[in-house]
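Inverse folding, one chain.
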């Protein structure tokens, strides 16, 4: 559907509008014939034309052509003008009939309201209007209106009648054109509004689909980060318990207790995550069960490092720079990055030590927070390649979410490194 104002075309009339046009046309034809009869009764000497029925035929035809005024607006305009001239020429007295005047007005109005060929409309309207004024002037010249009548005002009878007729026709025709333009432009504006509303609806649907997709990715990322850390810990401890079960039952028992604790923590965090996903507002949250404790953040890194050191390789935590406040989402992303990186160290590396460095950076009037996790191991032969998988992909996605940077891969000196830097608000 074209919305360019220069090329816009109004939709064709609906079946209901065409039916209404037929009703209007037939009604005006009947009214025109009735008006002729009333005028003839008031002035029996007035000329009716051929067999005293010609005036009835022309006036009724003027109404009937309006039955297709919106379907063929230009054709109706031309036919109406010809019929109007015929009435005025063959039965001049009856040209003043109000229904006849209404028919011509509706023809001009409909042409400007519904014509789809605007250049042809302008030429046709110009010819009709010029023809009408030429006819009026010709009538005054031939009939010699006002001859023999005394001048009692500031104008002679001929000048007065000429000015009145021309002024009335100017208002008549250009009024019809103005009303037609208002209708045409109103239809165009309604269509533009409908098109705009449709674009908004499609954009809203697109945004909703994109939001759902982003939410699915976020949920998948959170589930992976919550589960992978604890499951990898459980796997490492289970393998150790199996080896120590016969030789050192006490050590095996300690490993099983660690497994039990990790499983409980995993379930608790899963409940917390599901509760946060389901609680869309405070009212819903008040009626939904489950843990509602805050999501982990930077303040929980020390606990995470301590737990990992007790379950596998030795992990150290270092802080560089003057600490400053960090938003909850950025803190959660930093925590999940460290959690995933340490899970990979335990599950896929032979490392005996790992180091977590948290850096608070304030430079160039901006604040950034950076975390780096390095280890001294190498990938196990049975492990999947660490550059793949959903966990490291989730780290990259978290960094992109905050418009940050990520660097993941082997170190030249040996071992593996995961580094993420997130920009924060401007420093104050």
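Residues assigned per position:
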């Amino acid at each position: 559907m074209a919305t360019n104002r220069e090329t816009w075309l109004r939709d064709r009339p609906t079946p209901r509008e065409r039916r209404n046009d037929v009703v209007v046309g037939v009604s005006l034809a009947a009214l025109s014939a009735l008006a002729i009869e009333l005028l003839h009764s008031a002035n029996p000497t007035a000329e009716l034309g051929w067999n005293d029925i010609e005036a009835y035929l022309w006036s009724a035809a003027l109404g009937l052509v309006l039955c297709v005024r919106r379907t063929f607006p230009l054709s109706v305009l031309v036919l109406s003008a010809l019929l109007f001239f015929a009435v005025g020429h063959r039965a001049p007295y009856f040209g003043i009939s109000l229904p006849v005047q209404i028919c011509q007005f509706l023809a001009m109005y409909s042409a400007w309201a519904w014509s789809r060929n605007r250049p042809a409309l302008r030429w046709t309207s110009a010819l009709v209007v010029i023809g009408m004024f030429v006819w009026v002037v010709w009538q005054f010249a031939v009939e010699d209106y006002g001859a023999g009548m005394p001048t009692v005002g500031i104008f002679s009878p001929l000048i007065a009648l000429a000015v009145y007729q021309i002024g009335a026709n100017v208002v008549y025709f250009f009024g019809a054109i103005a009303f037609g333009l208002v209708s045409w432009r109103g239809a165009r504006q309604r269509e533009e509004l409908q098109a705009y509303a449709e674009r908004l609806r499609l954009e809203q649907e697109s945004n909703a689909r994109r939001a759902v997709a982003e939410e699915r990715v976020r949920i998948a990322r959170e589930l992976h980060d919550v589960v992978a850390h604890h499951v990898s810990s459980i796997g490492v401890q289970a393998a150790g318990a199996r080896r120590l079960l016969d030789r050192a039952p006490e050590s095996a028992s300690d490993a099983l207790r660690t497994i039990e604790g990790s499983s409980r923590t995993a379930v608790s965090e899963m409940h917390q995550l599901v509760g946060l996903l389901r609680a869309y507002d405070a009212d819903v949250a008040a009626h939904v069960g489950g843990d509602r404790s805050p999501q982990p953040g930077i303040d929980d890194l020390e606990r995470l490092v301590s737990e990992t050191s007790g379950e596998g390789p030795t992990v150290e935590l270092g802080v560089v720079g003057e600490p400053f406040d960090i938003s909850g989402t950025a803190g959660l992303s930093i925590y999940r990055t460290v959690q995933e990186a340490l899970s990979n160290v335990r599950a896929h590396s032979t490392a005996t030590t790992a180091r977590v460095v948290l850096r608070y950076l304030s430079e160039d009037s901006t604040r950034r927070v950076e975390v780096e996790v390095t280890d001294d191991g190498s990938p196990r032969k049975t492990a999947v390649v660490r550059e793949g998988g959903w966990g490291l992909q989730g780290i990259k996605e978290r960094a992109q979410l905050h418009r940050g940077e990520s660097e993941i891969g082997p170190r030249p000196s040996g071992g593996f490194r995961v580094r993420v830097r997130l920009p924060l608000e401007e420093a104050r």
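The first helix runs from residue 15 to 42. Strands lie at 314-320, 353-363, 366-375, 405-410, 416-426.
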